[in-house]
Amino acid sequence: MKAAVLYETGKPLVVEDGIEVPALQPGQVLVKVAYSGVCRSQLMEVKGKRGEDAYLPHLLGHEASGWVIETGTEVTKTKPGDKVVLTWIKGEGVDCKGAKYKLGNTTLNSGGVTTFSNYTVVSENRCVSLEEGVPMDLAALLGCAIPTGAGIVFNTLCPDKEASIVVFGVGGIGLSAIFGAKIHECSRIIAVDIEDEKLEMAKEFGATDIINCLMEDPVKRIYQMTGGQGVDYSIEAAGKAEVIESAFESTKYNGGRCIIAGHPDCNERIKIDPFDLIRGRRIEGSWGGECKPDRDIPMYVKYHKEGKFLLERMISQIFPLEEINQALSELENGRANRILIRMDHPQEI
Length: 349
Hints:
This protein has 349 residues and is of the alpha/beta class. It contains 11 helices and 18 strands. Helix 3 (145-157) runs parallel beside helix 4 (172-183).
């Protein structure tokens, strides 16, 4: 198989061919990857911004679409020939340790799911069956961005129609959160970003108001919009400590909630006034939008088929695996919503 390998943090990924696919262990599934998403978490790993990496060299990627080629013993939820979504969020099925790949005498580590490769061995519980009628490129979005962003609204917040919500950072996760807020018919949905093009797209997804934080102070503007009260909910999806602080400050006292979905540098720290907590503001993290993949992913597919979820608008660029480092560069520069990596299976895509 062919895969992008991280040998050393702070250095580009190396695309290697001729990697030996290991024999399947109980509970494992061999998948031919169609498309993989590129997430900020992988960028942080490559740059060494998640702290010490004890598993080098290793494979990366945690959201994809593909076809099941083979299953190990004990696998019951999928079979060869099935189309699947791959996700880092644990679902139903066997939970396995990562596979060990061989390239010559070198062992390449992996987790329960990796997707920057044209084939991958994953745990059964990282596979979700994909119904017909969803293109494989769009399906790759269902493994991380959508269940995290939309899940924060559907599973974590569960807002009513009177709720006001602001989303800081409108990439894939942020746009998914805005979609979730629109489905819940929130009274005010504010999008905050530094890119006007992204903000215009946020309006397509349901934002009622937009703020370019390079042009004006977002917290001040949010208070103006809400009569000095602040919003009921804020979601931080930009991955920066200073943005987390702004998201927290934008919520109202006595019940406002700030949910962190972004992934800051491990060396960054946030500063908040403890008195704000005493006055009833809350700040919390979200683990994949509290998603249950086998339940939630089919729901998002349904919304897409009904024309309520503009999945195709979320894809900004598609790169071949050989250009994975350029894809990461585009993501780092903030010029993309969701980037996909296309694997080399032209006869089936």
